């Protein structure tokens, strides 16, 4: 059962006021659980502020989602009219009535055909309510607009007494009731109904500022419970009523260590090589035409390629236009749009007030449940009061973080001379990773530079990189830094060419030196070889001479021996010959 | 299931005069009195109505007394909000008089009978 609601406070007080969930998006959050159970609630406001829609959604959601059948008692519109009115919100009253989930009773008050004589009471109203409640076992009642009875009867004193009795009656039966009331001049409601209903009074307002209408809700009174006292913007669209809750007071988002690629490998490299943390807020700011949308598109394309659902909210380009433009830099968004991974929503920023934009984004996110959201550019939402803008954006970021959505916002920085690091957005402190794209004008050309201004929780690069968008996508090139100058574009190319030429020359001179050394070595080696040949020649000649000399000596000795033998001295000559042989 | 007043013992009144001097349906006045239980106001209204009918509409009216406590589903049809309510169903257009019918003149004006020539 959707009756009581978990409260934030740890120490639960006994006898806490019981509440009934309305099922209205956002309203149950700001009231910590809906309207008081079993008691009447007044919804008041001017014409066209959405009172009836609020009441109807309370009734229909009760019947469809919380199994609490409801009675609708209308005083101004017939059942058929009401059925048609709420059909635009997707509610099928006819079928609900057929299934005995809702019972409609149109109370027609025609002052012209009524004559009053003597005293009377409104027992007929009670009888009808009782009958309707009994026939479907109703738990909820809507009285729209009860004050109409004041136009039908003259005796207001009696009417007041009867209305007091009616509220008592509703309370006694424990019927959770929503009563709508027209706004009056002085007090909240024209007939001061709020003095009878002291439990919960909700005020709806529809105002126009600078031709843009905004709807706001305020809980004026909610007895016995804490509630947001602010004005909350709300929206009525084809899915009904939704209230945008303000930022949660606490910073208790879940954190993730998962990383998500930016789609640009070079940028990932600057972020520890892994990319952003999942569930963080990323701001890409820069001047016009500095490549913010291209970065976002590449981020989205990468996420889709990784199988993450992405929502791209564009305020400047239509889906087809964006797809065409991104195709020119090699990013195919159409493929993902067709496969349903990418939802590309584009609308004019001037179309409605800021709250409406944020509510629309809220609803889209609730419906599509993406992991990645891009808002391009968030600076287009900055209209009107800056204080309001900041609080709104804070709410949005809070919401995104709570849902663990990685969000990328782009922000257009106005003017070149302005200090671009002081964000006009005023949200920089909420941003986890901030990438700045800036133009650098030098030597008659304009080049893009990118750097990571901050990125919480990682050792990001402090380099300024040149940001080059080509047909192949985005590349971040290291810029030339030398002699205290940062060079980009053709200046960088120039410098690089010069360096290349110098390198070539150096290489050539090294090669030449190596070659001449080789030549010299070869020459010396040749000389050495020649000398060795000479030496060999001399050596062989010398040995030849020695042999000749020896032969000569031997022959001489032989001759002497021969001669001495001829002369007769035997022994002497023999000893001499032996001596010669030895040497 | 409207209850004929004559058949209704609760209100202990012989409400409808038998149509002895019947002028035909054209001259008939069809009345319904809605009450919710036997409250003093309801009883007063019924008594006052009887008197008016007897004095001015003898034999030319039909009266149904409807107790919404018993038949609450009938309240919607005639758009009853205040109790007691007297509804003139015929002649058309429908007229409603709320209250205990203590003011004779107002009732006659309210029922718009003089103009239609039913009562002089």
Could you tell me the CATH topology label of the largest domain in chain A. Answer: Rossmann fold
Low-confidence parts of chain B, pLDDT < 50 over ≥5 residues? 1-24
Amino-to-carboxy terminus distance of chain B: 33 Å
Total number of distinct structural domains of chain A: 3
Q: How many E strands of chain B?
A: 4
- The CATH first-level class of the largest domain in chain A comes to Alpha Beta
Principal-axis shape of chain A: rod-shaped
Instruction: Report the sheet-strand fraction of chain A.
Output: 15-25%
Query: Strands across the major sheet of chain A, in which order?
Result: 5-4-7-8-3-9-10-11-12
Adjacency order of strands in the biggest sheet of chain B = 2-1-3-4
The biggest beta sheet of chain A reads:
9 strands, mixed
Portion in helices of chain A: 25-40%
**What gyration radius of chain A follows from the Cα positions, in whole Å?**
48 Å
Class by SSE composition of chain B: alpha+beta
Low-confidence stretches of chain A: 1-13
Whole-number total of structural domains of chain B: 1
